[in-house]
């Protein structure tokens, strides 16, 4: 009985977003031989964000300038590779109608851009003195970036595994 009512409700309630043309078109279009470039490129900014945090902790613990220099390079590379990953993600968002139509994709975009801003600020602040920039503001920004990258990566995973965005419909 309950199941019947559910079915009836499903038939009468129409989600206007689901009616948009191309709603079911969610396959990646920014890909090499079917492998989405975004998924391949996000590993670098994720790893480098964690590396920056670790290097900052290394500098805090040892006072060795090597760690401050390592953090400068890690956060710079993380920022620019994150921008590259962001471009491929944005292209996917704008080009694929089923990705563009879902609110979750835009949520991911907003969290990711916040992360990129923090990475950019963390890199820029170190350019005029990479040792002085670490404590405390560099370490604080690195900590914030680790939280944000965790959230961005987890949410990106949700887009793929829960919403099934960017996946191949073949086979
Ligand atoms: C700035 C704009 C960004 C947009 C518009 C965007 C958009 C997307 C989209 C549409 C997907 C679904 C898969 C696909 O279509 O390729 C995705 C997945 C994902 N995104 Fe992003 N993204 C952005 C930036 C980032 C950044 C900076 C990171 C991490 C540093 C990130 C991490 C992820 C991860 C981990 C996945 C799941 C990949 C997988 O498991 O296959 N994204 N993103």
Write the layout of secondary structure elements.
Elements: H1 2-12, E1 31-32, E2 35-36, H2 37-41, H3 43-62, H4 65-95, H5 97-100, H6 103-124, H7 134-161
Antiparallel strand pairs: 1-2
The chain binds protoporphyrin IX containing FE.
Protoporphyrin IX containing FE (HEM) is lined by residues 28, 36, 38-39, 42, 45-46, 82, 85-86, 89-90, 92-93, 99, 105, 108-109, 112-113, 115-116, 149, 152-153, 156-157, 159-160, 165-166.
Essential attributes:
171 residues; mainly alpha; Four Helix Bundle (Hemerythrin (Met), subunit A); 2 strands; binds protoporphyrin IX containing FE
- Average predicted local confidence, pLDDT: 94
The secondary-structure class comes to: mainly alpha
Major sheet description: 2 strands, antiparallel
What is the CATH C-level name?
Mainly Alpha
Note the overall shape: elongated
Secondary structure tally: strands:
2
Q: Please tally the helical runs, counting DSSP H or I stretches of 4 or more residues.
A: 7
Q: Percent helix among the residues?
A: over 70%
* Bound ligands, named by name, code or SMILES: protoporphyrin IX containing FE
User: SSE order in H/E notation?
Assistant: HEEHHHHHH
Cα distance, first to last residue?
37 Å
Query: How big is the Rg?
Result: 20 Å
